[in-house]
Design goal:
2 copies of one chain form a homodimer.
Chain A: H1 18-26, E1 40-49, H2 50-62, E2 69-72, E3 95-99, E4 102-107, E5 118-124, H3 127-135, H4 141-144, E6 151-157, E7 167-175, H5 180-188, E8 199-200, E9 226-231, H6 234-242, E10 247-251, E11 257-262
Antiparallel strand pairs in A: 1-5, 1-10, 1-11, 2-5, 3-4, 3-10, 6-7, 7-9, 8-9
C-alpha cells in the first residue's frame, strides 16, 4: 500500500512523538504501530455516517469495557481532541473501508471515502495497560512471541443498542498464577483501555472451545499459566459488521491511531 | 401535587427498598428523596426526544464528570436496566416539564408528556459519595444544616456537543483542612457519581464571586473549612435550558429516581 515515495521508518520509532509518527503515516509509510511512539496512547478508529452514530454511541455507553471511548468527533470533522493538528483521514498507516458489513478495500488515505457527515470514534487500546504490565514484570506472551494477541468470540452477549447487537469479543493473555492478582490490579487502574479482566481461568466459561484457535489474531503459548480474558475493542467491529452498516471506516488491525496523550493519563 | 388518595410516608423511609419507594411515588406520594431507601443509589433524570438525544449523549461522553451516565433507555421505553419493573414516567415523586428551555409545569405523573420517541438519561447523583464521606467521618455541611447543597455556575466551559454548550456547574462542600485529602480519595473512587473534585480552595479560580449566593440550592456555613468543588449534574439542565430544547422532562431537584443498585456498586 505504501508508495514509492513513502518515507523510510526512523531508526527507533519508539522514540518518536505522536506527531512525528503521524507525519510519517500521513506521508505514506505503512507499518504496524506496536512499539511506535512508546510514551503515547494508541487508539482504535471507527467512523460511521451520522445516521448510524447514535446507535454506536449508545452501544459504547452500554458496553464501556469493550468500547471505552477516548473521543468522539463532531460530524464531518477529521480533528480530535486527542492530538493537536491530526487529520483522522490520513494520519493512520492504513484503513479498512467497510460497506454493508464487509471490508471492500484497504487504503492508505481514507479521504476519498470520508463523507461530510462522518463521526469518528476513538476507542481505548490495550497497548496502554500492556505497557503497565511489562513495567510491573508481568509477562505479555504475544509480545514475547512477536504476534498479535489472540481474540475470541464469546457466548456472552453485549447489551444491544438500536440496530447494534452481538457477542462480546475478548482478548486473552496467559498470566503466571502468582501474578494474576497483580495483572488484575494493574489493568483495573485503566478503565479507559478495557480495565480489569472480564474472566479469569476456564475458557469454557465464556463458550471458548479451543484457545489454540482464536477467531482473530494469533494463538500464543499458554503452558501452565492461567488464561486471563479482557473485553476487546474488536467487539465493536464484529457488531458493526454483523449489523451490516452501509459504510464504516476503521483502522487495519495493528495499525492504530497514535495520540498525543501519554499512557499515564489513562491511569486512575 | 400529591392527591388526597396519596399514601402516607412509611415510618422509616431509609429502610425501604428501591422498589418499595418507587411504588409509593407511583401511587402519588410527593416528597424529596434524601435519605430514602438508604442503601440504593439515586439518579437524576432527563428525557428528551430522540432528535435531541444524540447531542445529549455526546455531551455526556465529552463531560463525564458533570454528566456520568448510569443508563440511557431505548427510545420510547420507560424501562431502565437500573431497576426491574420501574416505569420512569411515574416512579419519581415529581417531574418538571420543559418547553423551549423553560419549566412550564411540575407534575406527579409524566406519562401524558412522554412522547413515543423519548430517550431517558439517568445521571449519577452525589448522594452516593456523600454516604461514603459520612461513613469515613467527613462532615457534609448541607446535610447537617438540612438544606440543599449549594451549586454555582462557573467560568469554566464544558466541551460542547452539537447544539449543546455552556458553563460547568459545580456543587460545593466545605471540608476541614485535615480531611480534604480523605474527601478527594473517597470521591475519586466514585467516577460514576461525579468522582474527585474539580477544584479545591479559592472560589475565584472558578469565577465564583460569593459563596454565600449560590446559583442553585442553599448557602451553607463555610467557617474555617476549605471550599471543595465537584462537577454537578445540574450542568446538564443548565445547558439543555440554554439550548432551548423543544421538550425535556426532568426530575424536580431533590426528588430523584431511586434505583435498585446499591451505592457500593459504583465504588471502584
Amino acid at each position: 500500500m505504501s508508495t514509492a515515495a513513502a518515507p523510510a521508518p526512523p531508526g527507533d520509532p519508539a522514540l518518536l512523538t505522536g506527531a512525528g509518527a503521524r507525519a510519517l503515516f500521513r506521508a505514506g509509510l505503512d507499518t504496524d504501530t506496536v512499539g511506535w511512539a512508546a510514551a503515547s496512547a494508541q487508539a482504535n478508529l471507527i467512523a460511521v455516517p451520522r445516521a448510524d452514530a447514535y446507535d454506536l454511541l449508545l452501544f459504547a455507553q452500554r458496553n464501556p469495557q469493550a468500547c471505552p471511548l477516548l473521543d468522539v468527533t463532531d460530524a464531518g470533522s477529521p480533528a480530535t481532541a486527542l492530538a493537536a493538528g491530526a487529520d483522522l483521514r490520513t494520519d493512520l498507516p492504513a484503513y479498512r473501508i467497510w460497506r454493508d458489513g464487509e471490508v471492500v478495500e484497504e487504503v492508505a488515505d481514507a479521504t476519498p471515502y470520508w463523507r461530510s457527515d462522518m463521526v469518528a470514534f476513538l476507542i481505548g487500546c490495550s497497548l496502554t495497560f500492556e505497557t503497565a504490565l511489562l513495567e510491573a514484570g508481568v509477562p505479555v506472551r504475544h509480545l514475547e512471541e512477536g504476534v498479535i494477541d489472540p481474540m475470541y468470540v464469546t457466548d456472552r452477549p453485549t447489551r444491544g443498542a438500536g440496530a447494534l447487537s452481538g457477542p462480546l469479543v475478548v482478548s486473552m493473555r496467559p498470566v503466571p498464577a502468582h501474578q494474576v492478582a497483580e495483572a488484575v490490579r494493574i489493568t483495573d487502574r485503566y478503565p479507559d483501555v478495557h480495565g480489569a479482566p472480564v474472566h479469569v481461568g476456564d475458557p469454557a466459561g465464556l463458550g471458548i472451545a479451543d484457545l489454540g484457535r482464536p477467531d482473530f489474531g494469533d494463538a500464543v503459548t499458554v503452558g501452565g499459566d492461567v488464561p486471563v480474558f479482557w473485553a476487546c475493542g474488536v467487539t465493536t467491529q464484529a457488531v458493526v459488521a454483523a449489523s451490516r452498516l452501509e459504510l464504516a471506516i476503521t483502522h487495519v488491525p495493528g495499525r492504530m491511531f497514535i495520540t498525543d496523550v501519554p499512557h499515564t493519563a489513562y491511569r486512575r
